[in-house]
Amino acid sequence: MPDSHQFQYVRSHEDMSLVLLNASMTSFSYGTHSHEEYSLGVTLCGQQNFYAQGQFQKSHPGNVMMFSPDDAHDGSPGDQQTLTYKMLYVHPNDLAPAFAALGIQNIDSLRSKTNVFDQPRLRQQILRLATLIEDGSTRSDEYTSGLFNLAEELVVSFGEQNTANILQSHTGLERAKSYLQDHYADEVNLDTLASIACLSKFHFLRQFKQYTGMTPHQYWLNGRIARARQALARGIRATDVAHQLGFNDISHFNRRFKPIFGITPHQYQRLIQPQ
């Protein structure tokens, strides 16, 4: 079977920062990364294998995949069949009003210990919202209704059973995370991070990896790529983004961006920019 992969990103045409990925691949493998958004997807064909939350997981056709913000994961096809799936990226700010209306104040209460589910009703809401994004004439109120229906199904599916699974916050590690987020364009020293977290260097490395699913360097690079994606969506040229965010050159930027999004920054920008 020839190696091939195709990634198509579609952005909603209203104020909400909704992004849909239509993906098809036979051999491409994502590097370990996370997103600032909720990632809500449906496997359509083939099998997707990934490592997340300390365990290997598999998504089969019809399964729902859900990654909360900052859930570190990778991903690759799991068999000889071409893997195809749809993935929605929904920023927490876009879901917050619906969650508040549904009585959910702490979004972390919707986290689950696994990332793959057999949830037909949730699958239906994800695919409905995907259809709205693919339809270039969708109105703002249709997006709002679609988001509310999705949020409602998330609360029904996960709101009660997972309240005991909320991640325990570690103040020192949260300070280190905030520092990395604020200094995404700077080279960051491991000794500085360990000092911020009030831990020895090696204790910090171990605990940070357990807490976030990524090494400090991976987390820092992931934040840099997230800012790069935002800049590309605003229309800033890929070469300028690379310079502003401290990548050595456009080739270095391409090498870091493609393992997370499957395409180069320039290709991503062409897909995500309004026509």
From TrEMBL:
Database matches in Pfam families: AraC_binding, HTH_18
Instruction: Show the InterPro entries listed in the entry.
Output: AraC-bd, AraC_XylS_family_regulators, Homeodomain-like_sf, HTH-like, HTH_AraC, Tscrpt_reg_AraC-type_HTH
Q: Which PROSITE patterns match?
A: HTH_ARAC_FAMILY_2
Signal peptide bounds: none
SUPFAM superfamilies given in the database record: Homeodomain-like, Regulatory protein AraC
Note whether Transcription occurs among the keywords: yes
Q: Which residues form the HTH araC/xylS-type domain?
A: 174-271
Instruction: Print the keywords alphabetically.
Output: Activator, DNA-binding, Transcription, Transcription regulation
Q: Which GO terms describe its molecular function?
A: DNA-binding transcription factor activity; sequence-specific DNA binding
Task: Quote the protein name from its UniProt record.
Answer: AraC family transcriptional regulator
Q: Which organism is it from?
A: Maribrevibacterium harenarium
Q: What is the lineage of its organism?
A: Bacteria, Pseudomonadati, Pseudomonadota, Gammaproteobacteria, Oceanospirillales
